[in-house]
Amino acid sequence: MTAEDDSYTVLGALADPVRRRLYRQVAGAPEEVGRDAAAEAAGVSRSLAAFHLDKLVEAGLLAVSYRRLSGRTGPGAGRPAKLYRRAEGEFAVSVPPRSYDTAGRLLAETVERAGLDRELQAAAKAAGAADPEGAGSGADLEEVLRVRGYAPFWDGEVLRLRNCPFHALAEEFPGLVCGMNLALLDGLAGEEWSPAMDACAGGCCVALSKNKNH
User: Coiled-coil stretches, from where to where (predicted)?
Assistant: First the structure.
């Protein structure tokens, strides 16, 4: 099976609306999710949630671990619960096949070699500020970030980002791409929010907090 076939398999796995809801719930959660919590969030029975969650595991979209949620150990502690989290791999589907990732790498390499980091950041901030759906237009920032794939979640008073939409490029060109991402979010967030480099485990390098004067 080719990589293209794998991507089509993933696309098929998400065709079911219940399965999509379960995937979004698990993928956007800051911690591992059990079957009961996933079922409640998706509004389905535990047995149906278990069926679809395991199908998502088979497709490579979710990963599994086992842990006793009570924290107890030894005899009488009960069986470990099956917990789900977003899998590390990523899939892209394009019909017909395209190769935007190759273009992205070439552009990033060229910008980095030319030392155009500041120019890239300025362009990214301007693009974020000009976005008609950005927080500067009065839109809800959490929803804006969710639509753009950041999977935001609250950690106390800090809005953290569970997913990096530029993950592959950020791993290869961390300084360049993370700086661009920070500038983009600075423009997108408007004056009410302050983005800063504050990575969460397995997530985006940027976190946001509300300015106190707002």
Answer: none
Any idea which architecture 3-86 has in CATH? Orthogonal Bundle (1.10)
Residue 37 to residue 41: CA distance in whole angstroms: 6
Is residue 143 scored above 80 in pLDDT? yes
- Per-residue b or e along 29-52, where b marks 16 or more CB atoms closer than 10 Å to that residue's CB: bbebbbbebbbebbebeeeebbeb
Q: Where are the domains of the chain?
A: 3-86, 100-210
Distances (CA, A) of 4 to 9, 10, 19, 88, 202: 9, 10, 21, 18, 25
- If you average pLDDT over residues 130-145, what whole number do you get? 81
Angle (CA) 61 64 68, round 5°: 150
DSSP string, 107-131: HHHHHHHHT-HHHHHHHHHHHHHH-
Q: 147-192, pLDDT tens digit by residue?
A: 898 999 999 999 999 999 999 999 999 999 999 999 999 999 988 8
Burial zone of 119 (CB within 10 Å; 0-12 exposed, 13-18 middle, 19+ buried): exposed
Helix (H) or strand (E) holding 66: strand 62-67
